[in-house]
């Protein structure tokens, strides 16, 4: 009897998920199936090669969609030349004084070490070689990036914002919305407001009471003006060219829900490392647990796709 009840509960869960997400995925993607307004002007470059904003583009072989190299090679070059504590995503050299219990009690990671690393540090490009050659649609939707937080550390929160702004094409960022879930730390009040004045794309929303992660995300989503909604944690770092691959999938199908490979930042020394294992797909099992599964060999192709 219990097994039958469990199966019924699983079926009900799958049915609810289907009803919520399959019709239009309006909460997760505001992208509309239309020709984007204010799209970049296409001009003819040397040799008759079409160019957009100085970057060469070429048509996609399968469906005629024009593609573009979204990499910012100047920014990549500047990052590669940086050195210092934590630069290139290297672990911070810890001393005994750095390993104190108090550093982990509030944030779950060593905030003392975080505070001694640059707010806009460089990270190594650890993508698969094929990813570095891929082109994506020249017409991508922009996105509102929602970052909820509660009593987040100053350096970890600002490093998240800096990394997104530094490693995203500006035209793809409609806004960054920081949603403060009733924090009581002084550094997250007037000081944060004053710091964000220099970043016109960043705005701060504040709840009037503790709402929890999901409701805080929903508040940010309700205030979003971008064509796509992207949720990030308040202590993460974006890597090179992270955004175009995600938006490209949504441009192909507005009902898509996409998730990147999630690399790892060590909670102790802030070393930046790739996630264990090769490229994976995300999937839910019959009990609605999220899992990473290998991509079948027959679907893995050599070279950029």
TrEMBL record:
<dbReference type="InterPro" id="IPR001173">
    <property type="entry name" value="Glyco_trans_2-like"/>
</dbReference>
<dbReference type="GO" id="GO:0006493">
    <property type="term" value="P:protein O-linked glycosylation"/>
</dbReference>
<dbReference type="InterPro" id="IPR029044">
    <property type="entry name" value="Nucleotide-diphossugar_trans"/>
</dbReference>
<dbReference type="Pfam" id="PF00535">
    <property type="entry name" value="Glycos_transf_2"/>
</dbReference>
<dbReference type="GO" id="GO:0005794">
    <property type="term" value="C:Golgi apparatus"/>
</dbReference>
<protein>
    <recommendedName>
        <fullName>Glycosyltransferase 2-like domain-containing protein</fullName>
    </recommendedName>
</protein>
<dbReference type="GO" id="GO:0004653">
    <property type="term" value="F:polypeptide N-acetylgalactosaminyltransferase activity"/>
</dbReference>
<feature type="domain" description="Glycosyltransferase 2-like">
    <location>
        <begin position="144"/>
        <end position="276"/>
    </location>
</feature>
<keyword id="KW-1015">Disulfide bond</keyword>
């Amino acid at each position: 009897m219990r097994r039958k009840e469990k199966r019924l509960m699983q079926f009900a869960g799958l049915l609810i998920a289907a009803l919520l997400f399959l019709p239009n995925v309006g909460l997760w993607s505001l992208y509309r199936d239309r020709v984007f307004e204010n799209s970049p002007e296409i001009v003819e470059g040397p040799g008759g090669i079409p160019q957009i904003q100085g970057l060469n583009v070429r048509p996609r072989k399968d469906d005629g969609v024009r593609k573009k190299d979204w990499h910012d090679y100047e920014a990549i070059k500047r990052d590669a030349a940086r050195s210092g504590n934590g630069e290139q995503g290297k672990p911070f050299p810890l001393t005994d004084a750095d390993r104190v219990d108090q550093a982990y009690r509030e944030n779950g990671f060593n905030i003392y070490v975080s505070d001694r690393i640059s707010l806009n540090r460089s990270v190594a490009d650890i993508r698969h070689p094929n990813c570095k050659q891929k082109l994506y649609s020249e017409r991508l939707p922009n996105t509102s990036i929602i970052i909820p937080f509660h009593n987040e550390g100053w350096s970890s929160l600002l490093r998240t914002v800096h990394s997104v702004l530094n490693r995203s094409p500006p035209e793809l960022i409609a806004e960054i919305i920081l949603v403060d879930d009733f924090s009581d730390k002084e550094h997250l009040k007037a000081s944060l407001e004053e710091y964000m004045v220099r970043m016109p794309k960043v705005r701060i929303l504040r709840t009037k009471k503790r709402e929890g992660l999901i409701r805080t995300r929903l508040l940010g989503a309700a205030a979003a003006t971008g064509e796509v909604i992207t949720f990030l944690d308040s202590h993460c770092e974006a890597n090179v060219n992270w955004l175009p691959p995600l938006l490209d999938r949504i441009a192909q199908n507005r009902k898509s829900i996409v998730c990147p490979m999630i690399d790892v930042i060590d909670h102790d020394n802030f070393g930046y490392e790739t996630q264990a294992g090769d490229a994976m797909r995300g999937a839910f099992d019959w009990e609605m647990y999220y899992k990473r599964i290998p991509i079948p060999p027959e679907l893995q192709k050599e070279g950029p796709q």
